[in-house]
Amino acid sequence: MKQICLLGATGSIGTQVLDIVRNNPASYQVKAISFNQNLAKATEIIEEFKPALVACGDSVNEIELKKIFPNIEFAKGMEGLLRVATYPVANPVVINALVGSVGCLPTAEALKQGRSVLLANKETLVMAGEIIMALAKENNAQIIPIDSEHSAIAQILTGKNPQEIQRLILTASGGALFNKTRSELKTVTMEEALNHPNWQMGAKITIDSATLMNKGFEIMEAAHLFRVPIDRIDVVVHRESIVHSMVEFVDGSVLAQLAVPDMHLPINFALNYPSHKVLSKKLDLTKIGQLTFQPVDEERFKTLPLARYAFLKGGFYPAVLNATNEAMVELFLNRLVTIDQIEEEITLSMHDDCLMDNYRHLPFNLENIMKVDQDVKNKKFQKFKR
Ligand code: NDP
Ligand code: MG
């Protein structure tokens, strides 16, 4: 019996993890969960899965839930998240389905205890990939990706010699605004940007998909996870989201992973890594008919070169990239900026020597990465929240 410590239980990934648990009660038990604001969903989850520990976003929700569930242990804020990540059980499986930089420290804490982490929270690797991968190595813990592209690559690479990899090829759906010109972006509404053609996901990653920042993050994520130089990670636009990624080997052979676009599959694979366990949805290629591939226009989507730039600069650059994006996406979701301003502001951050000078002297560690994250967000909020 695997005992699940689930960070971000109320979200898109979190609830899909819970679907799998619900369908396999003999294999999994939910022991600890976290949520932030969605009290109604959290209440349902607690009633159904009866976790022993619940971490709440704030004390208001904590007090509310304590009244309904007097026998459950509660915690809140970052301390709560760290407790979920390290909750003492015999056979722990830590799943990080938090969104944003708040996921970084819980990943690190689980790894420090030698616990493997099933990671959906890509921001962890974007902002602190080097430190996180080193922690995993030191503590003999694994990071098993949930992100569909990285799951595809992990599936392809099972049993392969990493020396034989020539290139990783990430597929990109192109998101909701793929056919819009740069000038058309000025008038794109939040609703249009949130209308992803193939995937139902949380708001933040749906906007990241529309700007292709998500694919930039995934290049960085792949470089860390699979230790492939970033100039050997390519992106191809594949509107159908059936091929989830590919690996080219040194002999020119290209292996791809195909499946219906449904996150239950990568979650299920991560839970059983490296085995494939039964799921019901099957792919029928005859119904799809054709699969298309096209290059990315990196003039239109500068988020890809920006991600490579941040990765190669290293140090606090990736954290600044991530924080600028997170702040700008939040501002866009509050209708305070237009969607094209997200990329514009990231471009400014990446080339703002004054901004980066603030951080240059800081020792490179997780504590300072989190400080930089907060500082950049504060600056961006000050600039746009009038
Ligand atoms: P959602 O927004 O749907 O869910 C996020 C979860 O994190 C919710 O449980 C939310 O709580 C919680 N949360 C948000 N902010 C905080 C905070 N400040 N403190 C504590 N908890 C918080 O996101 P997704 O499930 O879509 O994405 C999760 C991660 O997985 C992201 O990193 C995303 O990039 C990645 N991912 C997602 C995919 C998808 O299909 N959704 C695909 C591939 C990767 P509450 O709702 O209660 O407020
Ligand atoms: Mg992905």
Associated small molecules: NADPH dihydro-nicotinamide-adenine-dinucleotide phosphate, magnesium ion
Number of domains: 2
Total count of helical runs of at least 4 residues:
17
The helix/strand order is EHEHEHEHEHEHEHEHHHEEEHHHHHHH
State the low-pLDDT regions, or none: none
Which architecture of the largest domain per CATH?
A: Orthogonal Bundle
Radius of gyration: 20 Å
Strand order of the largest sheet: 4-3-2-1-5-6-7
What is the β-strand count? 11
* Top-tier CATH class of the largest domain: Mainly Alpha
- Report the CATH topology name of the largest domain: Rna Polymerase Sigma Factor, Chain: A
Share of β-strand residues: 5-15%
Main structural class: alpha/beta
Distance between the termini: 52 Å
Please name the fourth-level CATH homologous superfamily of the largest domain: RNA polymerase sigma factor, region 2, helix turn helix motif
State the helicity in percent bands: 40-55%
In one word, what is the shape?
A: globular
Task: Give the rounded overall mean pLDDT.
Answer: 97
Major beta-sheet overview: 7 strands, parallel
Note down, in words, how this protein is organized.
- Helix 6 (123-138) runs antiparallel to helix 14 (317-333), helix 7 packs across helix 11 (264-272) and helix 14 packs parallel to helix 17.
- The chain folds into two domains: 2-145, NAD(P)-binding Rossmann-like Domain (Rossmann fold, 3-Layer(aba) Sandwich); 151-384, Rna Polymerase Sigma Factor, Chain: A, CATH 1.10.1740.
- The model has no long low-confidence stretch (mean pLDDT 97).
- Strands 4-3-2-1-5-6-7 form a seven-stranded parallel beta sheet, sandwiched between helices. A four-stranded mixed beta sheet has the order 9-8-10-11, with helices on one face.
- The protein is α/β, with parallel strands linked by helices.
- It is built from 17 helices and eleven strands.
- Helix 6 links the parallel strand 6 and strand 7.
- The chain binds NADPH dihydro-nicotinamide-adenine-dinucleotide phosphate and magnesium ion.
- Magnesium ion is lined by residues 147-149, 218.
- Residues 8-14, 34-38, 57, 97-100, 102, 120-123, 147, 199, 201-202, 204-205, 263 line the site of NADPH dihydro-nicotinamide-adenine-dinucleotide phosphate.
